[in-house]
Amino acid sequence: MNLAIVIVIAAVLALGIILRLAVSQSLQASRGSAGLAVAIRPIDLEAFRNLINPAEDDYLRRRLPPAQFRLVRRERLRAMAAYVQVAGRNATALVRVGEAALASGDARIAGAAQQLVNDALLLRRNTTVALARIYLALAWPNSGFAAVRVVDRYEQLSGAAMLLGRLQNPAVPVRLSALP
After folding, report:
1. Are residues 127 and 64 in contact, defined by beta-carbon separation less than 8 angstroms?
2. Residue 179 placed within a domain
3. Does residue 176 fall inside a structural domain?
4. What distance in Å separates the CA atoms of residue 158 and residue 116, rounded to the nearest whole number?
5. Residues of the chain with pLDDT under 50
6. Structurally, how many domains does the chain consist of?
7. 53: in domain
8. Which of 20, 40, 8 is nearest to 131 (CA)?
9. Distance between CA atoms of residues 111 and 101, nearest Å
10. What percent of the chain lies above the pLDDT cut of 90?
């Protein structure tokens, strides 16, 4: 009986978090398109991949006492959440960039813009789910977590943004990941 209550409470909290994130992202998407280049913050994909690597968690689990592992795991989860939030914000900005480029008379630009919008919307959905999973994992740090789909989708989105950027203005580079 107690387990059922805990599961129901966790489900209600998760639903609340998901709804809050969905509403905040929809509000961000409705803002004006001024300053889009400023709105995009590059992500260090190498560091992000390190954070989500299950082998790193296994290594820490083996090397640290359980209490210290839980503290370190929570810090890593908070860092993961920060990366996922930036990826979501970048996706929101790129939806607006893609929507603005859809009006282009050039079929190649319009096609690249449509691909960018589709990839950005998919990434926004994935970041919402990933954040909910991260927040749940903060409550249970020994649970497994993988944000691999967020990283993979972000790389795909980066490629779509670079293609659109090259088609629109070949002289200006587009970067969504930090330089190594």
Report:
1. no
2. no
3. no
4. 9
5. 26-35
6. 1
7. yes
8. 20
9. 9
10. 13
pLDDT one-digit tens code per residue, 74-110 = 899 999 999 999 999 999 988 988 888 887 777 888 8
Long-range pairs, 49-57, Cβ under 8 A, ≥24: 49/151, 51/76, 51/79, 51/80, 51/83, 51/147, 52/80, 52/145, 52/146, 52/147, 52/148, 52/151, 54/144, 54/146, 57/144
pLDDT value for 170: 64
Q: Which single residue is written with the structure tokens 């903060």?
A: 138
Give the span between the Cα atoms of 180 and 176, in whole angstroms: 12
**Cross-strand partners of 177:** 43
- In terms of residue numbers, what domain contains 89? 2-168
Q: Which two tokens stand for residue 36?
A: 């889009």
Neighbours of 7 (CB within 10 A): 10
Question: What pLDDT does residue 85 have?
Answer: 93
Nearest-angstrom CA–CA distance, 119 and 89: 13
The pLDDT score that the predictor gives to residue 133 is: 86
Instruction: Report residue 65 as tokens.
Output: 């006492």
Check if the beta carbon of residue 28 is closer than 8 Å to that of residue 94.
Answer: no
* Residue 76 is assigned to a structural domain of this protein: yes
